[in-house]
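=== Structure Prediction Worksheet ===
Name of assembly: unnamed complex
Input type: mixed (protein and possibly other molecules)
Chain count: two
Listed entries:
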Amino acid sequence: ETGVTQSPTHLIKTRGQQVTLRCSSQSGHNTVSWYQQALGQGPQFIFQYYREEENGRGNFPPRFSGLQFPNYSSELNVNALELDDSALYLCASSLSVGTEETQYFGPGTRLLVL
Amino acid sequence: GQNIDQPTEMTATEGAIVQINCTYQTSGFNGLFWYQQHAGEAPTFLSYNVLDGLEEKGRFSSFLSRSKGYSYLLLKELQMKDSASYLCAVDSNSGYALNFGKGTSLLVTP
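=== Predicted Assembly ===
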C-alpha cells in the first residue's frame, strides 16, 4: 500500500470520446507524475505537476492534459481517444520535485478504447 | 535519446539466486531505480543507486557501474512470490521524468 489511489480501476470508451482519470496523492506529497503503460512495456512518462503547475512533459500530444488541485489530487484528461490509447495509466506521487525523489505509484486505471 | 535494455524474460528455481541486468545509454544520469511490478498491480520501489557499487537490502541487492552504463538487480533465496516484472528506470537528470526499460518478467518455478 503506497497511499496513492486512482479511480476508476477500469474503463471502456470508444474512439473519439474523452476520458478523465483521477489520482489522490500520498499525504504530504506535492508532486504527481502520470505514466502510460502499454501491455508488455515499461511505463512512459506523460507529464508531471508540482504545486498545481505543469513541471515537465513527455512525448505525448496536446490531447493529453492534466490538472493538479490545491489538495494535490490530480486529473489526467485525454481527448479524441484513439485505439492506441488503450493502456494502464499510472500516477505516482513524490515528496517533491526532482527525479531523485522516490515515486510511489497508485494501482492504475486500465483503459480500453474500442 | 534514451535507451534502456533489459532481458524480456527469465526463469529461475525457488531458493536459487537470479541476476537481472540493465544497460542504459541516456543523455544524462542522476541515478537508477529498480521497481517490482506484479501482474495487474502498480510498480513498487525496490532500490535507488546513485554511486557505483553494490547496495544490499535483505534478499535484494542492486549494483551500479556508471562508467559502463550498467546495473543489475540480484535476488537471493527466491520465493514464488518473487514472480513479477522488474523494471529498471533511469533518472536522467531531466528534473522530472523517469525513463523506464520494458521490464524483465521473472518466473520462479518450484
